[in-house]
Every structure is written in structure tokens, then in C-alpha cells.
Amino acid sequence: MKISIKRDKKVVEFSIDRAVTLLQALYEIKEESDASLTFASGCKSAVCGACAVRVNGKEVLACSYKIVDGDFIEPLNYHRVLRDLKVDKSEPKDKLLISNSYLHNYNQVTLNSKDEKLVERQSDCILCDSCYSACPVLAINPDFLGPFALSRAYRYVADKREGDDKSIIDDIQSNGIWDCTLCGECSAVCPKGIDPKMDITMLRSKSAQYGYIDPNFSTQNFSMPSFGFDPNSGF
Which domains does the chain have, with CATH numbers? Predict the structure, then answer.
């Protein structure tokens, strides 16, 4: 079977003799065909998230994806490409600082199993950046915090041990929760089943409790259309 890999500004085709995972195929190419092929890998067990790439336009983990004939492989979107499939993942992580997505004021409380369930799924994030790469908002607004940072923000807002959740809410208003289109692309590609779309929806609800509203409402016109006459004047 043949697979194509985007390398800088060109696409190179390689032949693979057997059905293997994409990561195995990349190692085979590097060892037998082209030693210069560059990609990232780590645990090889879908735990570390290092090997995330795009295959046929969808984000996957190379270590768990089984290749098929004709696959097109490219690096993640919205990341600076270092070489071939290897990208710089620092920008999405930097947005964690902008969004203040971390514990601010520790509140010592006893958590029950229901409390733990509220943040359990978000805590499973493996930092693969698949959700960030899948987000269409970043194509038009590179300053958007992205689903990765916002889902992490919800993880701490929902945590009873956070004694200052408002400081997180305050910092995700600009280029944050209201810019999201709720398309669900981020949720669809998460290898751990995290649902950033729902997390952002919950953050909007929490924001409303603190008096925030969608700023887009102020630019929308909800008045009746004009037909060139006064509807109250009679006929």
C-alpha cells in the first residue's frame, strides 16, 4: 500500500508492505527508505500524545491509527512546523497562562465520588493538541484560546477545591468562550473522549452567573424589518 506524507512544501509518497500502525510505518520508512524523515513519538501506547498528526484531514495518534492505502499524512494545524511532521507545541501551552487555567486559591474541602467525576474526564488530557488543530476558529482568529485551554479552564472552575473560580472566568471572556462556534470538531477528535464543546457550554453558563453575556448580542439587530410603511398607521 502507498501513503503520502507532507514534507514542508512537497508531498512524498512511500510504499508500505503490510498493514501496521502509522507510527510503525513512519519508523519503517525512516529505517529503510529515508533516514531524514522527522516525526515525534513517545510512549507508543496512546498515553503521551506526542505522535499526534493529521490523516486525511483528521487528527489521530500515529501509534494507534492503522494505515490504509492512499492515506495522506500531514502535521497538526496552527502549529509552527519544525520539520516534516514534527511541530512546536508551545503556543497552545502558552495559552494556558493567558486563560489562567490552573489552581489559584486552594480551598480545602472533602470531595465525594460525584465531585471527582466532575473533573475526572478533563484530567485525562494527554496534551496531544488534537482538539487545538481541529478547531476552525483558529483559522480566522489565531488569538482564540482554543478548546485545549478552555477545557482545562473548566476543569478548575468545576473543582470545589478552587476558591477563586471567578478569576478564571474573567480571563476567558476575550478570545475565549464566546468566540467558540460550538461545532464539536474538537470533541470528535479527542482520543480520550473529552468533550471541550460541552465544557465551553458549561463555562458560558458559569459566566452568566457572574454577570457576563455573549458580546455578540450587542451587535445583532432584533428589530422588525422595515417594509417602507408604518404598521401602526392602518391601510
Answer: 2-88 (3.10.20.30), 90-215 (1.10.1060.10)
